[in-house]
Write a structure and sequence with these properties.
Structural class: alpha/beta
Strand content: 25-35%
Distance between the termini: 57 Å
Bound molecules: zinc ion
CATH superfamily: Class I glutamine amidotransferase (GATase) domain
Number of domains: 1
Radius of gyration: 22 Å
CATH class: Alpha Beta
Oligomer: single chain
Largest sheet: 9 strands, mixed
Helix content: 25-40%
CATH topology: Rossmann fold
CATH architecture: 3-Layer(aba) Sandwich
Shape: globular
Length: about 300
């Protein structure tokens, strides 16, 4: 063997030894597969929002995200029949026509068997008549929702807990868009652990008076909807977790516009909520640029 070849072989050996050691000390992170569903939404920034959320999830290094569009409004929903079982998480950025019975049933089966779901903003307006979906989102708004849909959920400052209100009335409203403070109500939940208890959210629609079955639900954070902004005057659920069968759901009412979704509070809770629905745990660290009560924080 000539010298050059010997040197090459020993160099290759050292390289492979080094890479073996590196892979032993840093086992590859488990990648969670996410399907974002869009295609119909009453929000004109739907496509930008889906792309932004794909980016936010993938930058954590623990998600691989695909975006799937349904047929357009009035289209043949029989053409929308995704294999949900290929994914760990389905993120809904969808608010539109009913899916086919077959697709509804395969989605219900996916969640019952342990599939994760993330519901973002207007996705909780969708499917007012689909019983299982309403159990997954817990509470929703508009599309004819009322006292028959279930109670309102509010944080009661005196009782220091979430209360259910079955009084008759519309399900779903919001006042003027504005910046508002989000307050954690479940500090030890994996999604919220380590976050400031109060943080200033960017300008957004503050969804209020949502109502629904509200079963197996934990309200992680609320925000006060001021009457001066044409709101409900109540502490409204903003971030929630639910279970449906073996499946976990994270529901954020935040994220009306691009500027709302650029809030580091929206981004971080979306990233952590998506990991929690996939695994029941959160391994991500809280970013240094997380907003405080006084100072909002955005990313480009
Ligand atoms: Zn909106």
């Amino acid at each position: 063997m000539n010298k050059a070849l010997k040197l090459l072989l020993s160099t290759l050996f050292l390289f492979s030894l080094a890479s073996t050691i590196v892979s032993i000390s840093h086992p590859p992170k488990k990648i969670h597969r996410v399907l974002i569903i869009e295609g119909q939404n009453n929000h004109r920034n739907m496509k930008e929002g889906s792309q932004a959320m794909k980016g936010y999830l993938e930058e954590t290094g623990i998600f691989k995200v695909e975006i799937l569009s349904t047929p357009a409004k009035g289209g043949d929903m029989n053409n929308f029949d995704p294999d949900f079982t290929k994914y760990d998480v389905v993120l809904s950025n969808y608010n539109g026509d009913s899916w086919s019975q077959k697709t509804n049933q395969s989605f219900e089966k996916f969640v019952k068997n342990g599939g994760g779901v993330v519901v973002v903003h207007a996705a909780d307006n969708a499917f007012p008549k689909w019983e299982a979906y309403n159990k997954m989102i817990g509470i929703g708004g508009w599309e004819g929702r009322n006292e028959k849909s279930g109670p309102y959920l509010y944080w009661d400052e005196t009782k220091q807990k979430i209360v259910r209100d079955t009084v008759a009335g519309v399900g779903g409203s919001h006042g003027n868009q504005h910046e508002f403070v989000v307050t954690t109500r479940e500090k030890s939940h994996p999604i919220m652990k380590g976050l400031p208890v109060e943080w200033l959210h960017q300008k957004d629609e503050l969804y209020d008076r949502l109502r629904g079955p509200a079963e197996n639900i934990t309200v992680l954070a609320t925000a006060y909807s001021p009457k001066e902004q044409n709101g409900s005057g109540k502490n409204e659920p903003m971030l929630m977790t639910l279970t449906y069968g073996k499946g976990r759901i994270f529901h954020t009412t935040l994220g009306h516009e691009n500027y709302s979704q650029k809030c580091v509070g929206f981004i971080t809770t979306l990233q952590r909520g998506s990991e929690w629905v996939a695994t029941g745990k959160v391994t991500q660290v809280v970013p240094n640029d997380f907003p405080t009560r006084e100072k909002g924080s955005t990313r480009k």
